[in-house]
Design goal:
Shape: elongated
Largest sheet: 6 strands, mixed
Distance between the termini: 210 Å
Strand content: 35-45%
Oligomer: single chain
Structural class: mainly beta
Number of domains: 7
Number of strands: 52
Radius of gyration: 75 Å
């Protein structure tokens, strides 16, 4: 059974049979040589098989790779099930694409054959092509490049050039160019046309372009009319040229020292030459004129001298700018300020800002300023600038100064107090505080209300904690503060009553006793004492050791007698004290006490005295007091503190009743 494919331009099919074995089925598919791809009619021979159920049509654009999965047809995406028909039409395809077709048969069990032979239907979009040069009605001569622009949805295979309908050249790659030599042609009008082909055999044709061929060998004549030879020029100068040709001038070019400046094809031929873009000097100007045949004419050289005023773009340089290290005023003297410029410095300016001033800013001076006034004290930086007549402003040069303004504000003593009373000349200061607009640097306390100078002795960098008065009593002290500038505050006063402890001992000015006495209780001839405050107690002792003020025996009145502990040559010591417990130094007086001897002696006493005097026995204190009776002066015993033979004789005399003179 024969099968085939039919595509139509009209509805005529061209059949190409082939054989495919599918389960003993044979499908024959035929296809066209030329057709419209938008609608394709396929025909094939029927398969003679009792189990045949139907046929499926597969299609796909631009690729023969299986399986075919085409989309876009009115009948739906591949495969298209056409039941048991042996012909079908696939419509709604895109003529810009080529398509591949195949048919399969399937039986009642759903088993499908392999693809039949593949049929190819090429795309039907013709290329587009146009001539881009020369333009319509152009005049040409000699050899020219005829150029075309061609494109295709798939690709341009070649471009053909036709002259008066006769193929003149073929180009298979871009750019599409045909070098047309018109030299051998007779002058006249010629029609140019191009045809573009794609791989599918689609053909596009350009519009006709009419050109006039003129075989011209005469070059144009050209001359520079301005500026004149040897002219001196500046700024923007118009270069003008006059050009003519037997056929026509197509272009005029202007050159400076052989370098192209400009080209134009419209008369009048001029060029505005900005001479400020070149250095001053001599330049050669020339012009070239072209005709359509490619003939070139060149003018004579014109020599000109460019002489422009050169703009000053060089800024001045501040070479030196110094200020003193310190200052005591906002207006500071400038130590040095100098600047140079390639033409000349015309202005000087000092600012407190590092931002460059404009040349038109206020404050510029034609002479070097000698001072600059700052806005405030402290560590300050000034910036020196210079400008020139062209308005160029230099970079800044900076200098720094530390400004300390004079301090004329005196400190203030805000608090100063003393205790109400004190018992010493050195009094603790209860409080002392002061403030200053800059800072307190010194503190001083005086007894005088006269303000001290800042250089007076006694100032302290810290608040004093005590003050020593010159004397006791009701005293007023004055507190002062100063600052680093030497400003001294007003005084703040405080009062204290000082009562000093009594540390002065009394003085015993007189103390006398009689030379002799016959009793241990001796009358005091005189005892007087004085004290800076007052004597409150008197005391007489036999010891030279100073008694304490709290010892027993002190009397608030002068004693009239003193009782010694024994007879003999005795020394007494007189003392005085005051209410503060101060005890005076002693004043001494001596008395010889001879007590009447009334003792009755026995022979035993005489024998004991003899044994003691001979060293046989050591006397006890009681024995010494009883038996020491010699010597005897003026009938009175004057004991000498020892027992010797004289004492034995006196005792024996007393026993026998003999008087001792």
């Amino acid at each position: 059974m024969n099968t085939g494919i039919e595509t139509r331009t009209g509805d005529v099919a061209v059949i190409k049979p082939f054989l495919v074995m599918i389960f003993a089925w044979v499908l024959f598919l035929v296809g066209p040589s030329i057709c419209f791809a938008t609608t394709v009619t396929l025909k094939w021979d029927a398969v003679s098989d009792s189990t045949l159920a139907g046929y499926k049509v597969y299609y796909q654009a631009d690729s023969s790779a299986q399986p075919f999965t085409g989309t876009g047809a009115v009948q739906g995406a591949a495969p298209v099930d056409v039941s048991n028909q042996t012909t079908t039409t696939i419509s709604g395809l895109d003529s810009a694409h080529a398509y591949y077709f195949a048919v399969t048969a399937y039986n009642t069990a759903g088993v499908e054959s392999s693809y039949s032979n593949i049929f190819y239907v090429p795309e039907l979009t013709a290329p587009t092509v146009s001539l881009t040069y020369p333009t319509n009605n152009a005049t040409v001569t000699g050899t020219i490049s005829v150029t075309a622009s061609a494109s295709d949805n798939v690709g341009v295979a070649k471009v053909e050039y036709y002259v008066n309908g006769i193929l003149a050249a073929t180009d298979t790659s871009t750019p599409y160019v045909y070098s047309w030599n018109t030299s051998a042609l007779a002058s006249g009008t010629y029609t140019l046309m191009a045809m573009a082909y794609d791989a599918a055999g689609n053909i596009g044709q350009s519009s006709n372009v009419s050109v006039n061929v003129v075989n011209d060998t005469t070059p144009p004549a050209v001359s520079i009319t301005a500026p004149s030879n040897s002219a001196t020029v500046s700024g923007t100068v118009t270069i003008s040229a006059s050009a003519s040709d037997n056929v026509g001038v197509s272009k005029v070019e202007f050159y400076q020292n052989g370098v192209l400046l400009s080209a134009g094809n419209v008369a009048p031929f001029t060029y505005s030459w900005n001479t400020t873009t070149v250095a001053n000097g001599t330049y050669t100007l020339t012009a070239k004129a072209y005709d359509a045949a490619g003939n070139i004419g060149q003018s004579s050289n014109v020599s000109v001298t460019v002489n422009n005023t050169v703009a000053d773009t060089t800024a001045p340089t501040v070479s030196a700018f110094t200020l003193p290290a310190t200052a005591t005023s906002l207006t500071v003297a400038i130590s040095s300020f100098s600047a140079t410029d390639n033409v000349g410095v015309t202005g000087y300016l000092v600012t407190g800002s590092s931002t460059a001033p404009s040349a038109s800013a206020t404050g510029w001076s034609s002479s070097v300023p000698t001072t600059f006034t700052f806005s405030a004290a402290g560590s300050k930086t000034a910036y020196a600038w210079a400008k020139d007549a062209a308005g160029n402003v230099s970079a800044a040069k900076s200098a720094t100064v530390t400004i300390t303004l004079p301090d004329t504000t005196a400190p203030t003593v805000s608090a100063f107090t003393l205790p109400t009373t004190a018992t010493a000349l050195t009094v603790a200061i209860s409080s002392f505080s002061a403030t200053d607009n800059v800072g307190v640097t010194g503190y001083l306390v005086t007894e005088s209300s006269t303000a001290p100078s800042a250089s007076a002795t006694g100032w302290s960098s810290s608040v004093p904690t005590t003050y020593t008065f010159s004397a006791a009593g009701s005293k007023t002290a004055y507190a002062w503060a100063k600052d680093a500038a030497g400003n001294v505050s007003a005084a703040k006063s405080a009062t204290v009553t000082i009562t000093l402890p009594d540390t002065t001992a009394p003085t015993v000015s007189a103390f006398t006793l009689p030379t002799t006495a016959s009793s241990l209780a001796v009358a005091i001839s005189s005892l007087t004492a004085t004290d800076n405050v007052g004597v409150t107690g008197y005391l007489v002792t036999e010891s030279s050791t100073a008694p304490s003020a709290s010892a027993t025996g002190w009397s608030s009145t002068v004693p009239t007698t003193f009782t010694f502990s024994a007879a003999g040559s005795k020394t007494a010591y007189a003392w005085a004290k005051d209410a503060a417990g101060n005890v005076s130094a002693a004043k001494s007086a001596t008395v010889t006490i001879t007590l009447p001897n009334t003792t009755s002696y026995t022979v035993s006493d005489a024998l004991l005295a003899l044994r003691i005097a001979s060293g046989k026995v050591t006397a006890t204190a009681a024995q010494l007091a009883s038996l020491d009776v010699a010597p005897v002066v003026n009938g009175q015993s004057v004991p000498d503190g020892k027992i010797d033979p004289g004492d034995v004789i006196v005792i024996m005399s007393k026993i026998v009743g003999k008087s001792i003179l």
